Amino acid sequence: MHELSICRAIIGIVTDHAGHGAVRSVNVRVGAMRQIVPDTLVYCWSLVTEGSELRGAQLCVEQVPATIRCRVCGQEHVLDAPIMLCPACDSADVTLVSGDEFLVTSLELEEV
Ligand SMILES: [Zn+2]
Q: Where does Ni(2+) bind (predicted)?
């Protein structure tokens, strides 16, 4: 499953940065073009962290809408679906402004 490999990637980033501290929560930002369902991601997170050092750490998912800029009509549009077409003029000559993000934005550690 897509979300499982994403969770494993998050765990890799978190364990690189958390050191020996216990992690209370992990904040991630994902773009809509990644086609990640936040609820599924959180569910997978609880599965893959169960029995690991990250057990109990909360995953907070912030979604970023996909925005495109059309090179033909110059307009910017927030996409409802991950289809790279300008809704105003149907041009496919568009650039993705946002929506491709996948970042761990912050970690919250337990007080030691
Ligand atoms: Zn256009």
A: 2
What spacing in Å lies between the alpha carbon of 73 and ligand 1's midpoint? 4
Residue 106, beta-bridge partner list: 27
Per-residue pLDDT of the chain (112 residues; tens, 9 = 90+): 589 999 999 999 999 988 777 999 999 999 999 989 999 999 999 999 998 989 999 999 999 999 999 999 999 999 988 889 999 999 999 999 999 999 999 999 987 6
* Numbered residues of the known binding site for Ni(2+): 2
Measured in Å, residue 92 CA sits from the centre of ligand 1 at 8
Q: Where are the domains of the chain?
A: 2-109
CA distance 94 to 30: 21
In the annotated binding site for Zn(2+), the residues are 70, 73, 86, 89
